[in-house]
Prior knowledge:
This protein has helices at 3-16, 25-32, 37-56, and strands spanning 22-23, 61-64, 67-68, 80-82. The protein is of the alpha+beta class and 90 residues long. The protein has one domain (3-82): Winged helix-like DNA-binding domain superfamily/Winged helix DNA-binding domain (Arc Repressor Mutant, subunit A), CATH 1.10.10.10. Helix 1 (3-16) packs across helix 2 (25-32) and helix 2 crosses helix 3. The chain is globular and about 45 Å long.
Amino acid sequence: MRDAAIEQAILALLAERAPSKTICPSEVARALAQDNEAQWRPMMPAVRSAADRLAGEGRLQVLQRGQAVASAVQAVGPIRLARPAPPSTT
């Protein structure tokens, strides 16, 4: 699976949700693998890496327990992907 395809899938799933809603990285892997567990589970590291790249570009936020974290790859445990936080007006 190409990195660009994974990034596009992440952004497409986020776009389908309300701006305040999040997605689970496994939703991305499942969508790309058409829910075939033998295929989607091994994709998870690539999905997390793609999320890191997009977060580095400011195109999404990686959340854990509702708080932004620096890295999807380094986070231990469940994470969520969200649209970037709106710029602060203060």
